[in-house]
Amino acid sequence: MSVSYWNDRSGPTPTQADVVIIGGGIAGLSAAYWIGKEDPSMKIVVVEKFEIGAGATGRNAGFVTCGSVEHFNRLVEKHGKEEALQIWQFSEENMRLLKEHIIQDKAQDLLFEHKGSFSLASTDVEFKELQNSDALMKTMSISVETIAESEIKSRLGAEGFVGGIKYVEDGSVHPIKLLEAIRAKLGSNITVCEHHEVHAIEKSGDGKRVRTNKGSIDCSLVVYATNGYSPLLNKFFDDKIFPTRGQILATEAVPRFMEGPCYANFVLDYFRQLPTGEMVIGGFRQLQKDVEKGYSDEASDLIRNALEEFLHKHIPAVRKAKITHRWSGIMGFSVDGQPMVGALPTDDQLFFVGGFTAHGLGLAFHSGKVLADGLFGREIPKFISARRLR
Ligand SMILES: Cc1cc2nc3c(=O)[nH]c(=O)nc-3n(C[C@H](O)[C@H](O)[C@H](O)COP(=O)(O)OP(=O)(O)OC[C@H]3O[C@@H](n4cnc5c(N)ncnc54)[C@H](O)[C@@H]3O)c2cc1C
To answer: Is 303 in the pocket of ligand 1 (CB under 6 A)?
Structure first.
């Protein structure tokens, strides 16, 4: 949608900065927070094509979870025990940092709850994997709990699942309120420019020139926090970051019945009840994998129907509730499912923070801190470094 002169409150475009961060989602604002905190004399400009939170950060389900797109047993198979534990602990630290720096005493305002999340199996095969994960995780002192079929009904109000596990340290939040809280903590050295679309990044003297629809900004360093849209700006991302659509529905509020948010079907589908009673249900991109790739955020009928069927089949308390919202958003899946953070192997002045593969709330704030580490010359762990992918 175009923006009229009258509606444009973005103010004049700065012409110079130390760092330009492209993208006003949780990755961009987290990066701005940590870089600005480390060096308050640095001039940082965040440029966002639409408004802050217009991308996936304002369109997700609000799960703040540990780990990644797969059950822990598979993470161990892929990465080995040591790295799988590092990956898990990375998001545990994300939660700790969010609570310490952003959430603080505002949990109620942000609809933040730290009561754990659940992964539910609808087949014995998946339940076996969850039980294996539970056993593995316990040997590594990760807090998990196995949930029997009968408890799923009584604790989560859900039907049609044979068992599950609870990740005790997970939580949930109102994602836009969280983003606003990060924005409110940005130092005075940080300027946020909404309705600024970056068209190109060019070399300029020893630095870079970021060309936007409103004018150019000369700077020393550029950070892409552009999630699934990154390949549109730099070919480096073509075979590393894949735009992937996710769809959600929300219902009117019903009396609270769920102990915590739930994933189902190998982390592909998910549902949660907000502290205010509304139900949010998402997933089913596996039904039309080819269509769910790309940049269009139109909702599809097939997935819309699948979400409704899921609601009717599994969550009796909302069968009669009115569906009030439906939406979709574009996620950035990385080629190996792990985030990519730090300088690109192709250019020391170009940085990236993203590739959260549907788990940005559980990863981005800590990733912003690690990005600042890289920018100030400290080492970035290999499993998360953008340089592991050439
Ligand atoms: C339906 C759905 C459900 C999800 N559920 C969860 C969940 O429950 N828990 C969880 O942890 N994660 C979830 N995710 C994933 C999570 O939302 C993302 O991982 C996270 O928001 C990524 O943050 P980001 O800042 O990298 O990207 P975004 O929030 O997408 O921000 C990128 C920004 O870059 C801007 N931009 C792009 N190109 C340009 C340009 N050329 N110039 C200027 N600006 C540009 C975009 O407008 C956008 O605002 C979900 C995602 C979706 C879509």
So the answer is: no
User: What is the C-alpha separation between 22 and 11, in angstroms, rounded?
Assistant: 17
Closest CA relative to residue 307, chosen from 264, 253, 368, 366: 264
214-257 pLDDT, tens digit per residue, is: 999 999 999 999 999 999 999 999 999 999 999 999 999 999 99
Residue 331: CB atoms within 10 A of its CB come to 25
d(CA 373, CA 390): 21
What pLDDT shows up at residue 68? 75
Tell me the average pLDDT across 290-295.
72
Q: Compute the mean pLDDT over every residue in the chain, rounded to the nearest whole number.
A: 95
Q: Whose CA is nearest to atom 50 of ligand 1?
A: 60
Q: Is residue 370 part of a domain?
A: yes
Q: Which of 331, 340, 350 to mutate to test the pocket of ligand 1 (most atoms within 8 A of CB)?
A: 331
Ligand 1 centroid to residue 63 C-alpha, Å:
14
As for how many domains the chain has, the answer is: 3
Range of the domain at 275: 242-333
Residues 328 and 249 in one domain: yes
Q: Which protein residue's CA is at the shortest distance from atom 48 of ligand 1?
A: 55
